[in-house]
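Annotated sample (chain length 78).
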Amino acid sequence: MKLNNEYILKFMNHPDRVAANAKLRKALKRIEEIKTLSAQTILICMPPALKELECAYENLIIVEAMIEQKLLKEQAVG
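Output written by the structure step:
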């Protein structure tokens, strides 16, 4: 595997990765918003928000692995 600027740019700017990263940032923002609420509201709202964050993170990891595999195949062929 050869890491160069072109590879890194393709990886970081891949549309699927950008979309997955946006979902992760949205989930993080939601948790930050919940933190400012009352204790009772936090107890009600935080568990689903944490689950959403977990799913977004797992999705990002999966998407990144798929993109990396695709880019490695392209690099091996080209």
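Annotation: The first helix runs from residue 5 to 12.
Annotation: Helices lie at 5-12, 15-35, 39-77.
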